[in-house]
Design a protein that fits this description.
Length: about 140
């Protein structure tokens, strides 16, 4: 092994990646819709409250077939073993609280706190450990 190969091998880390939600991939759920998205949204004739409820439901629907370039990197590790150990950890109370505060769900969405906790556990269970140099992260 050359020095160059040894250095590049040593620089490889591991990312704990979480799948995106349907809401994250739905431009009409964004607060910053583009002109085309706004036009499509207005043509659907969906009321704002219906859109909010739909987006709330999409917030707990994971998209497992999304390209890894659209998944979320939550942590970075030096070894695969460290990454996998983190995957096995149950959600902490802090993570549960953060999930509740970030969700921004409306009262009429029909999504309970228990639904959010199940979503968080499922998200972690379906997470993947990927090498930092994995070409799938580039999204070409």
């Amino acid at each position: 092994m050359t020095l160059r190969h040894a250095v590049s091998f040593a620089l490889v880390g591991w990312y704990l990646m979480l799948p995106p939600s349907q809401e994250a991939l739905d431009a009409s759920c964004s607060n910053h819709m583009g002109i085309l998205d706004s036009l499509i949204y207005s043509l659907k004739m969906e009321s704002d409250s219906d859109r909010i409820k739909r987006c709330d439901r999409e917030a707990i629907q994971l998209v497992l077939d999304a390209p890894f370039s659209q998944w979320y990197q939550t942590d970075e590790f030096e070894t695969l073993a460290e990454c996998r150990a983190q995957q096995q950890q149950p959600p902490t109370e802090q993570e549960k609280s953060r999930m509740k505060s970030l969700s921004g769900l409306t009262a009429g969405s029909g999504i309970s706190e228990d639904d959010l906790i199940r979503f968080l556990k499922q998200d972690i269970m379906l997470s993947k450990c990927l090498a930092s140099d994995d070409p799938r992260l580039r999204g070409n």
